[in-house]
UniProtKB/TrEMBL annotation:
Descriptive protein name: 3,4-dihydroxy-2-butanone kinase
Entries under SMART domains matching the protein: Dak2
GO MF: ATP binding; glycerone kinase activity
Gene Ontology BP annotations: glycerol metabolic process
Keyword flag Protein transport: no
Length: 688
């Protein structure tokens, strides 16, 4: 036999029984009646309900399977006492209904809530009469809230749809409150007359059996079809959700048909029900559009909204809208607690519904001067331009401005190299980085350069604005993280003070820690961190050793460059390039970080009116130390330096080395190792 669709089932004839077994295993508050495997009695009841001893009105409903979570998912204290289940899209048998009545009905009697389908009415009706004959008190409420069909004609009338679930809840809450059978039945009857439902679908459901034809084409949808795929009111072209919602609401609330007695100014409850094949995302869109139209076009107060899967039709791609007129007593019943596993939790159960839209709170200002607040506000809100007056800035502000400009321009100049190093996985890396760099240059005139922390925040804002929500620019997000983490660190202890070199070092460490935390990479993963981590370590070591801050910055830039070049030998462990063999080129992210870091260091040095930092040392006697064990280093800008420490720094190795650095930052091992490693970069002078 050819089946209509791929399904995770065994035998379609056993599907309903298998569903019950899975349901009661999932929810310990549910039980099923023994013997259903033999006699096909498929009844789910509240756990702990003793036969003949239940002291409240039992509320019973049911129908065919294929509508999950209806009906067994609504069994629980405060809702249904039992659910009688038939096979897929088949009414439950009279024997099953009678067995359910016997299992849960006590002295207070039971209420049968029946959807308006011929088979359901007949079978539940026969079972009710048999139960009455046996001495049980039984009342029946028929629910037919379908608004797609013309006004009632003959015996069939309007079909029972998802609005039945709201009737279940009202009746279950009334029964749990201790009302009599007549009172519970009256509330259920009233609720059934206050609700209207209409659905729409793009496709029919695929039955658990032979192939069935789909009367809807690719570009058609059907309005008002039933939950078993019965024909609806019309087949029309697919329309946008706004149009579809309007069509359904006009039918449900039509004053000509008067399906539900709802008029402008009334309070209502909304249920948006997925029919099985519609994603929850689309249902939420429908809910939002429906609420707006009910409020603005129909003048109704929407007090409760329930969105989800309440009564499905296997895998039908569609949804239904149910609207119930609600006074305070009805809302109290809907808000009453229940243990039914499929009733939605958190849908306004406290009775209060705050206004759903609030303004995004602004970041609190921590500036001490009103001028700073106004300046930064102009940048953030874009209300105008502040004058870019170099004379107003302190020396630190001018240095910071030069460093930012140099770093951004360095990235732009390296665009094509970065694209090439990005390889197949990210061949536009340089172009993406340039977007951020150009945004920084464009916005620089707005930056509060008198405040280093706020400037870091502003750079992050420029990068974020440049991203514009484009996923392909997510590479820039790491730089946004860097800037925001630096801002937080600089603001922590320097709200009104000038930022010191040590503060910048700590800010760099905090930025790296942020990227490691949220990006998941670390040194050796072939990322930007392979440049920044060595730079941070060397910067901290030099500052701790008392090296001049500008020189320390220059030395750390060399460490960044060397770290970036070391990625040539690495296999990527993170990012897109992890799936590509790029062992012949450096990582573009690491190279970009090294380039802007080095450019910033050079700009700072130039702004301090210092000569470009060459700092090379070349061996003169490569393997022999002086007779007294002293090593001599000649530096172009500061002359000769002596060192008696037999271990040298390996971190830098090549360029921009200062005398104090040679003592603490160039650790190799032996003098021979150090010379072999430094090679052509080092002039090692042996002499007495």
């Amino acid at each position: 036999m050819v089946y209509a669709a791929k399904k995770f089932i065994n035998n379609p004839n056993d599907a309903a029984t298998d569903v019950i077994k899975g349901l009661v295993d999932t929810y310990p508050g549910l039980q099923f009646l023994l013997g259903f495997g033999i006699h096909k009695v498929k009844v789910v009841i509240q756990a702990g309900v003793s036969v003949g001893k239940y002291d409240k009105v039992a509320v019973i409903s049911g129908g065919g399977y294929g509508h999950e979570p209806a009906h067994a998912g609504y069994v629980g204290e405060g809702m249904l006492t039992a659910a009688i289940c038939g096979d897929v899209f088949a009414s439950p048998s009279v024997g099953s209904i009678v067995a359910g009545i016997r299992a849960v009905t006590g002295s207070q009697g039971c209420l049968l809530i029946v959807k308006n389908y011929t088979a359901d009415r007949l079978n539940f009706g026969l079972a009710a009469e048999e139960a009455k004959y046996e001495g049980y008190k039984v009342e029946t409420v028929i629910v037919g809230e379908d608004c797609a069909l013309p006004p009632p004609r003959g015996f069939a009338g309007r079909r029972g749809l998802a609005g039945t679930i709201l009737v279940h809840k009202v009746a279950g809450a009334a029964a749990a409150a201790g009302l009599s059978l007549e009172e519970v039945a009256a509330e259920a009857k009233c609720a059934s007359e206050m609700v209207g439902t209409m659905g729409v679908a793009f496709s029919l459901c695929k039955l658990l059996g032979p192939v069935t034809s789909d009367r809807l084409g690719q570009k058609k949808m059907e309005l008002g079809l039933g939950i078993h795929g019965e024909p609806g009111a019309a087949v029309v072209d697919v329309q946008p959700v706004d149009v579809v919602v309007s069509l359904l609401l006009q039918k449900i609330l039509s004053p000509e048909t008067n399906y539900v007695p709802i008029t402008r100014g009334d309070r209502v409850v909304l249920m948006v029900n997925g029919l099985g094949g519609t994603p929850l995302m689309e249902l939420m869109i429908v809910a939002g559009k429906t609420v707006s139209k009910l409020q603005l076009e129909f003048g109704l107060a929407v007090d409760r909204v329930y969105t989800g899967f309440f009564m499905t039709s296997l895998d039908m791609a569609g949804f239904s809208i149910s609207i119930m007129k609600a006074d305070q007593s009805t809302l109290d019943r809907l808000d009453a607690p229940t243990k039914a596993p499929s009733w939605p939790v958190g849908s306004g159960t406290d009775g209060n519904r705050p206004y759903p839209k609030i303004f995004v709170p602004c970041r609190p200002n921590t500036h001490s001067e009103k001028r700073q607040i106004q300046h930064w506000r102009y940048y953030r809100l874009g209300f105008g331009q502040q004058p870019d007056d170099e004379r107003e800035l302190s020396q630190q502000g001018r240095v910071l401005k030069a460093a930012i400009r140099a770093a951004a321009n360095a990235i732009i100049s390296l665009k094509y190299n970065l694209n090439e190093w990005g390889g197949v996985s990210d061949g536009r890396f340089g172009s993406k980085m340039c977007i951020g760099a150009k945004a920084i240059l464009k916005d620089m005139k707005y930056y509060p350069l008198y405040d280093a922390a706020e400037t870091m925040y502003a750079i992050g804002a420029s990068i974020s604005k440049a991203m514009g929500g484009q996923l392909e620019l997510c590479k820039l997000m790491k730089y946004n993280l860097l800037c925001k983490a630096a801002y937080a660190e600089l603001k922590k202890d320097n709200i009104d003070e000038e930022v010191t070199p040590r503060d910048w070092s700590e800010a760099l460490k905090a930025s790296i820690a942020s990227v490691r935390k949220y990006g998941g990479a670390t040194e050796g993963y072939r990322t930007m961190l392979d440049a920044l981590i060595p730079a941070s370590q060397v910067l901290e070591e030099n500052l701790s050793a008392g090296v001049d801050p500008v020189t320390a910055f220059s030395v750390s830039a060399v460490a960044a460059t060397k770290g970036a070049k070391s990625t040539i030998q690495m296999q990527a462990q993170a990012g897109r390039s992890s799936a590509e063999n790029l062992a012949t080129v450096p990582d573009p992210g690491a190279m970009a970080a090294a380039v802007w870091y080095r450019a910033a260091a050079r700009a700072v040095r130039k702004k301090q009116h210092l000569k470009p930092y060459e700092g090379s040392v070349v061996p003169k006697s490569p393997t022999v130390p002086s007779r007294d064990g002293v090593f001599y280093f000649d530096f172009p800008d500061i002359g000769r330096h002596t060192c008696r420490d037999p271990t040298f720094v390996k971190t830098l190795g090549a360029v921009e080395v200062t005398p104090p650095v040679a003592l603490h930052a160039l650790r190799l091992g032996s003098p021979t190792d150090s010379l072999a490693t430094l090679g052509p970069w080092c002039r090692f002078e042996n002499g007495a």
